[in-house]
Amino acid sequence: MSPMRASLILLVLLCSLPMVTGCGLFRVTQDIWRMERAVELHGEVVNAAPGTPVVIMLVRHHRGKKKIWNYSVQYGPGSYRFLTTPGAAYLFAFEDRNEDLRYQEGEPAAWYGGTTPLKVIVKDGGKAENLVIRLSNEDYQGMEQIAPPEEVSEGAVKLGKVTVSRGEVVSLDDQRFSPERGRQGLFAPIHFAILSGYGVYFLEPYDPAKVPVLFVHGSGGNPQEFRAIIDRLDRRKFQPWVYQYPSGLRIDVPSHELVQALTELYGKHKFSRLFIVAHSMGGLVSRAAINEMAGRLPTHPLKLFIAISTPWDGVNRAKLGVDRSPLVIPNWIDLAPNSPFLQSLFEKRLPPQVPSYLLFGVAGGDGTDGVVPLISAVSLRAQAEAARVYAFPETHTSILKSPVVIDRLNSILEEHRRHKPDIRRTL
Q1: Domain residues of the chain, as ranges?
Q2: Among 106, 98, 101, 202, which residue's Cα sits nearest to residue 146?
Q3: Which residues lie closer than 8 Å to 173 by C-beta, 6 or more apart?
């Protein structure tokens, strides 16, 4: 790439920052500072019965009380992790035998530390590992003093300063799903999370007779980008879910949060099938989530994965931004070609019960669909696992509105709803 072309692309990257002066620039730099300070807690729950729901709670002091700051759900023993702010925290886990997300006396449980909580303190940007919680039937002190999460509405709770959705029923017209909020999720993800919340949202009440179709947007995107597809979805057979998340974070963060949301929703609704339709970076988020979910649920409900215009091998503009921009959006690190995240994405093959389809556009010119290089969208690694690969004369954005694409998408959904088609993985 010539120096002049590189400079022009860098200028585009910088000019795409919203409100790069005043409070807009302050929010961008403040969010980057907050993300650099974030700490990670890694551990393992042992002595849990295989296949039994286990809840792990991150507890902090807040306004004189112990409060559940975050939690995760898993099945049986295994690893857990939290991304949180610096400071003191406590960890508590229990077998949630009645699956109500609340600890009852008699459920095997433990603090990190045993029968009494052991404080975990992590400084800015640090990591605490090997936080093993050993469940037992002994008596535990302090749980009665912990305030449960504030329920904002049915399907949504307040965790710390953020509202997290686990099936809140909303309209696609909700202002949280607007293009402006989507851009904010890219450039100021922490501010976005506090203002808008994040999680999996239902566009209608849950119906066990319908197959859930989860739509996952890409970098800077929003659920409203799927409006044309959702409008033509057969609502007699399918129920649309959307995943709204702060897309500027490192990609493994929203992918892990998606795993947490789907695990909790699985425990609540016991759905046997789930289809995922993802656009652009949303395909990377979804693929990483599928990797993490493998083997973690009693049954594997994911039965179909459709990726649209996904940059499997990254985009050069992201690397240019990382190398030259004074403000680096964290997801650029993972979107850069040959990043450790992209290299690890195909270390696991998709489970055999999760057929994948690749859809991409070829109308952007200059070897791209207008955003994603075609060579990245048709990565040989992704093709090697794909049941089918489809190209369309569309751009990166028009592909989500094309009647021809939507017809093809609906035929794939219906085919997999009715039965498992006879397909072969092709190179």
Answers
A1: 39-147, 151-418
A2: 101
A3: 224
Tell me which CATH code domain 151-418 carries. Answer: 3.40.50.1820
Residues 392-412 as b or e (16 or more Cβ within 10 Å = b): bebbbbbbbebeebbebbeeb
* pLDDT of 11: 38
Strands 238-244 and 198-202: antiparallel
Determine which helix (DSSP H) or strand (DSSP E) holds 158, and give its type and residue range: strand 156-159
Give 10-residue mean pLDDT values along the chain (427 residues). Answer: 41 40 60 81 96 94 82 95 92 93 89 91 90 90 71 91 95 97 93 94 98 98 98 98 96 96 95 97 98 87 97 95 89 96 95 95 93 96 96 97 98 91 43
pLDDT value at position 303? 95
> H-helix or E-strand containing 370?
none
pLDDT of residue 54: 96
- Of 90, 95, 206, 221, nearest in space to 146 by CA: 90
pLDDT of residue 25: 57
Q: What is the DSSP letter of 218?
A: -
Stated as kind and residue range, the H or E segment containing 253 is helix 252-269
10 exposure class (CB count in 10 Å sphere: 0-12, 13-18, 19+): middle
Candidates 321, 320, 329; CA nearest to 219 is 329
Q: Which CATH number fits domain 39-147: 2.30.40.10, 2.60.40.1120, 3.30.2160.10, 3.40.630.30?
A: 2.60.40.1120
Report whether 163 contacts 200 (CB < 8 A): no
Q: What is the dihedral of CA 264, 269, 273, 279, to 10 degrees?
A: -50
Q: 316 exposed, middle or buried (CB, 10 Å; 0-12, 13-18, 19+)?
A: middle
Dump the DSSP string for 321-361. Answer: HHHH-SS--HHHHHHSTT-HHHHHTTSSPPPTT--EEEEEE
Best CA proximity match to 278, nearest among 360, 352, 388: 360
**What predicted TM-score, i.e. pTM, was given to this entire model?**
0.91
Cβ–Cβ < 8 Å for 316, 252: no
Q: E-strand spans in 193-255?
A: 198-202, 211-216, 238-244
Q: Which helix (H) or strand (E) holds 52?
A: none
Instruction: Sort residue 178 into left (φ over 0), alpha (ψ -120 to 50) or beta.
Output: beta
